[in-house]
Amino acid sequence: MISCLQEDKVKLQEELNTAESKQQCLGSTPPSQGTTDLEKHLAILVLENDRLKQELNSSQLRFQQLRASVPTCTDCEHSKENSRLREQTSVLRLELEEKTRLLSELELHLKDVHQDRTEREERLNKRIRDCHLALAKHPTPGMKFISKKMEVESLRMKQDLEEAQSRNHYLQEQIGIQRQLLTEQEQQLQGSWHTTAQLQAQIMMYEAELEQARGEMIVALQAIEDEKNQTIEEVFQHARSEMKTVHDNLNGVRMNLLSIQPALKTLTSDYNCLKNHVRDFPCLLQDAVSQTKKDIYQAVEEAKGINQDLLRKYKREMQLRKKCHNELVRLRGNIRVFCRVRPITREDGAGPDNRNVVSFDQDDDAVLCISHRGKTSLFEMDKVFQPCALQVDIFREVQALITSCIDGYNVCIFAYGQTGSGKTYTMEGLPDDPGINQRALQHLFGEVAERSTDWDLSITVSMAEIYNETLRNLLAKDPSEKLEIKLSPDGSGQLYVPGLIQIRVQSVDDINKVFELGRVNRATDFTNVNEHSSRSHALLIVSVTGINLTSGARTVGKLNLVDLAGSERVGKSGAEGPRLREAQNINKSLLALGDVICALRSKQPYIPFRNSKLTYLLQDSLSGDSKTLMMVQVSPMGKNVNETICSLKFAQRVRSVELGAAGRRAESQLCSSRQECELESPHTAIQQGRHNYPGGNNVGKSTAGKRRLVTSSEVTN
Ligand code: ADP
Ligand code: MG
User: Fold this and answer.
1) Mean pLDDT highest for which of 338-352, 411-425, 565-579?
2) Cα 415 to ligand 2 centre (Å)
3) Alpha-carbon distance 351 to 164, whole Å?
4) Contact at 8 Å (CB) between 535 and 586?
5) Which atom of ligand 1 is nearest the CA belonging to 425?
6) Atom of ligand 1 nearest to the CA of 417
7) What are the tens digits of pLDDT across the range 441-498?
8) What ligand has the least distance to the C-alpha of 429?
9) Which residues pair with 555 in a beta bridge?
10) Local structure of 270: helix, strand or coil
11) Lower CB density within 10 Å: C or N end of the chain?
């Protein structure tokens, strides 16, 4: 029995120990140490809390002090933030106080529980001791009862212990929650402390800024004050001086007023006098106006007389100018020969045959040299255009001729040369760099406009082509229609071409339209347009009709711009059929042209106009006072040298015919045909010509006196 009780006691003791160790595990120190860890921790927290409270108080105090030192600005953003933070701090503080109160209550409760537990333990120990004593005194009787009672007690104690444990557990949880809350509070406090520090820093910064602003304001105020004082001073000085001036003026005015009074009296009397005059003025004015009118009429009459005199003089001057112009052209020769050497183009290619054979005399723009078979031949023209010459340079030289067409003269400009030597380039040119044709018309438009006050001038153009001695109208609806050259039925002996269309042109646009139509019609019916155009003569015939607005006199001038067929000697290369016929026709017409020009220059009684369609058509424009320009085109290439020499000899032949009266006839007989020219050695002919006749007029000479061109001096001698 006793052993049973002892076993129970040991068990109880063990249970008690287990409970205690569990309690220890739950975070308490053994009760033997007097205070638990929880209590210690609590104490530390309380201390920490007190410290924080103190810090908060001191921060608040500092904050209040700072706030007191800073001037209140209720509306600014920082003060709002500040008050919000202050409210937050007070709320936190209240919460902290509440938490502290709760913590102290918990502390008290824990103390009570602990005390209660200690008491119970003591009671239990005491009872155990009593039991031991009772056991010692009464070893057997009543043991059962005691053990029974012990069992009951033990059960109750167990219950109490469990209760205490659960309570302890609850309390531990509460403490944990409180601790967590405390930590949060601490963090919040830390945050608010940090915010307070930031605010302090901001306040200090604001203070500094305020201080600086205040300083600047004081300086600015001071400056304004100084400026104000200075301005006031200046204004005052100015006002004073002005006042003085005004005073002086006033005195002057006063004095003047005193002196003016007599003058005013005089003025009044003058005014009355003037009034009387004004009353009489209309009559005086009428007299003066009628007198002035008379004077003006007289002056106008005088001016009219002078004007008419001037007009007469002007007309005389104009006629003189025209005369001079014609004289100039005449002195230059009514038939002039120019030579244009085209530049070497990419199409010419390279090779020994393609070297440049043409050279120039830099001091004499009328000479060009051809190097051929080791010899150099000199040719002299009225003017030589080097390859670098521009279209505008060419036009400048022919401009005077074109102008004379407005004065009622007939003008012919021919482009002569082998195919590819640049005839079309010189006459038509390129769209962006036009040749003589377009420039001539543009120039005529300018002249027409300039003379419009005295003349009613109109310009018409026709375009025709001569192919195989057939004349085609290039502006007709049916370009294949052949035209005939007829004598005018009015018996004037003039020629005319029935059906040749004439179109009036007034602008560059008009010209371009006409040229385009001519170009299209020229191309019709021919597959190889280029070949065809090189074997036909293209004519642009410009007629300028003028009526003098004063005298009513009528003038008609004709400008014939001719792009001749290629002058190359196709016939020699053994061509047959249509090609041979073409060549023969070209030869014939070019020969006829040369003959006609020679005959004209030498003023022969018979001019063989009828030998070709071309000369026949241009009869009017070649004879009489007409002016002719032959633009001989040559290629600088070695492969073209024979044709170049031939063209230059043709030019030479035309040019060298002199105007001497006695020599003309003989000369014309000596004038060889084109074919003969071709047979000559150019070198011999030209060189001899120049050596024999150095007197200026270039004279070509054929071999061994077979043919001879005579100079005027020679003839007169
Ligand atoms: P043609 O009418 O005598 O047969 P083209 O006028 O058709 O010769 O000229 C032959 C080529 O040489 C063309 O391509 C032309 O553009 C060129 N040409 C001729 N003369 C000149 C020049 N002065 N400057 C530049 N190119 C030229
Ligand atoms: Mg051509």
Assistant:
1) 411-425
2) 9
3) 130
4) yes
5) 6
6) 3
7) 999 999 999 999 989 999 999 999 999 999 999 998 887 888 999 888 877 777 889 9
8) 1
9) 546
10) helix
11) C
CA triple 439-443-445, angle to 5 deg: 120
Quick: pLDDT tens for 315-354: 888 778 767 766 665 665 678 899 999 999 888 887 777 7
C-beta of residue 626 within 8 angstroms of C-beta of residue 411: yes
| CB-proximal residues (5 Å) to ion ligand 2 | 423-424
Give the closest residue (by CA) to ligand 1 atom 10.
420
User: In Å, what is the CA distance from 634 to each residue of 254, 297, 371, 566, 647?
Assistant: 101, 68, 14, 11, 7
Number of the ligand 1 atom closest to the C-alpha atom of 563: 2
What is the rounded distance in angstroms from the CA atom of residue 683 to the CA atom of residue 696? 19
At 456, give phi and psi (nearest 5°): -105, 100
Identify which of 338, 340, 341, 342 to mutate to test ligand 1's pocket (most ligand atoms within 8 A of the CB): 342
Q: DSSP characters for 561-593?
A: EEEPPP---GGGGT--HHHHHHHHHHHHHHHHH
Cβ neighbours of residue 323 closer than 8 Å, sequence gap 6 or more: none
Give me the long-range contacts of 532-535 (CB less than 8 A, separation at least 24). Answer: 532/467, 533/424, 533/563, 534/419, 534/565, 534/566, 535/467, 535/565, 535/566, 535/582, 535/586
Angle, CA 683 vertex, CA 680 and CA 688 arms, to 5° = 95
Q: Strand, coil or helix: what is 498?
A: coil
Q: How far is the CA of 404 from the centre of ligand 2 (A)?
A: 27
Say which range, 232-241, 558-567, 627-636, 677-686, has the weakest mean pLDDT: 677-686
Which numbered atom of ligand 1 lies nearest the CA of 419? 4
Q: Cα(680) to centroid of ligand 2, in Å?
A: 26
Which class for 598: exposed (0-12), middle (13-18), buried (19 or more C-beta within 10 A)? buried
Answer whether 0.90 is exceeded by the pTM: no
Beta strand 410-416 pairing with 383-385 = unpaired
Cα 563 to ligand 2 centroid, rounded to whole Å: 7
Which atom of ligand 1 is closest in space to residue 430's alpha carbon? 16
